[in-house]
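Quick illustration, no need to memorize.
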Amino acid sequence: MTPEGKVKLEVKKQLKALGAYQFWPVPTGMGATTVDCLACLAGRFLGIETKAPGKKPTPLQYLTLTKIAEAGGLAIVISSVAMAKSLPEIIHAGRSVVATN
């Protein structure tokens, strides 16, 4: 499994444990783009981009995350398995996290 795949797997696990709705769109190259995961938990919209450790979102991914945050959702970049494990605390804090760790 790729490093990013390990991060995605842990994010899915954490969201499931929280009881969140989660949708992982498959990019087709047609239409609007989005981030890796769109989720909803306790009435809160989440946009989550996953990255391998040391990698950063593309400019288009940053733009999408910014739009999510400006619309009142949580925009989160998860760039390690350890950070994915802290997803419940990140969501509970209610603040977007777009810097990679």
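The first strand starts at residue 21 and ends at 23.
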